[in-house]
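Hey L., structure's done. Input below.
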Amino acid sequence: MAAATNERAEQRPHSVWLTGRPPLRRKAEQPAGLGLDKIVEATVRLLDAEGLAKFSMRRLAAELGVTAMSLYWYVDTKDDLLELAVDAVAGELALPDDAEDDTADWRDQLRGLATTYRDVLLRHPWAPRLLGEVLNIGPHSMAFSSATLRVMARSGLGPDGTSGALASLFHFVYGFATIRSLHEARCRAAGLSIDDYFAHVIAAISDRPDFTETMELSARAGYAMPDASALDMLDRDFAFALDLQIAGIDAMREAQSGARAGGR
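Output:
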């Protein structure tokens, strides 16, 4: 029985949030003025500036002016530190005011949650990858999750549809923000703004016969306009797609309500 218990314990998902760490005790060789909050802040700053691929504990230590070993007074592994960084940026998410829950429209609140999620992912383009790799159960992340569930509970959608509705909405936001971040990174690597990059692409394909139909259809749809702002177009598309998502949830809510009324 003990062996089976130990095996189950080893299979438990690893997370810094599930690992009890003893309280830190000040030691002579521990750098003065260094703390976990300062380390996490520097981690986020470095990830924003240089990206996930270049991040290392040695690089972080150099940024802080300490030795790499000093960081391990506070975290056990680099992965643990990355989990802390993901939750730190989740602290930037704007949550609905609980005092307004009785009067606020759940659609507006859901739209606000989706928009703040997009904005955080765009500000920190390294975060989407980590969100798919780490166990996202830090306090800020859980506060956001709880807020989305409270809003959905007020929507009138049945409990069996809540997880699917939230998955549809936030997977859309995640995908939209991730693709946009990758595109913006490509533009930066080319030394161009996103508008200039878009204009170069349009100019390169506008005279090619194999793109004629696509160009015509894109122009009708509001794309491929020489004087259009790519960022404005992306914001417009996001807003419309978000409205479609919320309208779909609302339609499902109404359908469920009608089905319940018809079954009486």
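Confidence is low (pLDDT under 50) at residues 1-5. The two ends are 52 Å apart (CA to CA).

-- N.
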